[in-house]
Amino acid sequence: MSIMETNGGSVVAMVGKDCVAIASDLRLGNQAQGLAANFQKVFSITDRIYLGLPGLATDVTTLYERFRFRTNMYTIKEEREISPETFAHLVSSTLYEHRFGPYFIEPVIAGISAAPTASPSAVSSGTLAPPPGKKWQPFIAATDVIGCINFAKDFVVAGTASSTLFGVAEGLWEPDLEPEDLFETISQTMLNALDRDAYSGWGVVVHVITPDKVITRTLKARMD
């Protein structure tokens, strides 16, 4: 058995129209034995960046504190909020520093940023307007245990249910989903995938990140 399956857990992130969503299960286990049904695997880094950490439970806590520290140091030094793209490279470099004794974590990053646009007057209808000359750009990425980044324009997955999540997400995801449709898609993807993985489940928490708010919902799932 892989050490990545010791505590179980899965995370998926999806792109929508001017929004992004990230979801994880809530199970903490010791292989097939369930220990808790409220273990947090997704963390808020900034108002518009969320980080999923599936893998070994002890490394989840360690890495979250390390990323939080480095993000705060970046904010103090640069006097601005870190962007999702920069944070993804911060995650990658942190993991690569420990490549000879790696953390057993496969991070998933989800966020939105204000990207340059050719039309300064273009703004997102119905949402908080981005800075002049920019538009809201969803961003998702995942890395392996030594920090190799996988950028994607649709969805990324990690954890013990990865293979099932890939299959379900391929069938359900569509481009330019509105926030509520994106929530429904990522929720159904997680719930259906978790039914086929013994090391994940026991509830799902979903975060939908939009320019003006973050919608967080907790879903019930099978407890067997």
Automatic annotation (TrEMBL):
Pfam families linked to this entry: Proteasome
UniProt keyword rRNA processing, yes or no: no
Keywords assigned by UniProt, alphabetized: Cytoplasm, Nucleus, Proteasome
Gene Ontology CC terms: cytoplasm; nucleus; proteasome core complex, beta-subunit complex
Keyword Nucleus part of the UniProt annotation: yes
InterPro entries in the cross-refs: Ntn_hydrolases_N, Proteasome_beta_3, Proteasome_bsu_CS, Proteasome_sua/b, Proteasome_suB-type
Subcellular location: Cytoplasm; Nucleus
UniProt-listed Gene3D superfamilies: Glutamine Phosphoribosylpyrophosphate, subunit 1, domain 1
GO biological process: proteasome-mediated ubiquitin-dependent protein catabolic process
Assembly behavior: Component of the proteasome complex.
Similarity comment: Belongs to the peptidase T1B family.
Function: Component of the proteasome, a multicatalytic proteinase complex which is characterized by its ability to cleave peptides with Arg, Phe, Tyr, Leu, and Glu adjacent to the leaving group at neutral or slightly basic pH. The proteasome has an ATP-dependent proteolytic activity.
Name assigned to this protein: Proteasome subunit beta
Species of provenance: Punctularia strigosozonata (strain HHB-11173) (White-rot fungus)
